[in-house]
Input
Amino acid sequence: MKKALIIGINDYPNSPLGGCVNDANTLATVLESNGDGSPNFGVRKITCPSTNITRPVLREAIEQLFSGDCEMALLYFSGHGFI
Output
């Protein structure tokens, strides 16, 4: 099994971004299935404003991604380098 955690954060109090959530949504769509429609990655997506994104939320999601057995784990983050 291949797993992916895709994170996109646009909403920052002092310097919001414009394309991070869109990038995350696009990548999640690409990873979910192969060109023939067969399943590819099991994707968990965290984006704002649909999720209240905090450090503990991200830490838990990343720990879950890398826990257990899997063939491949992919972490994608689009946003500022700080939260």
About this structure: The chain is about 30% helix and 25% strand. The chain has a mean pLDDT of 93. Strands lie at 2-8, 41-47, 72-78.
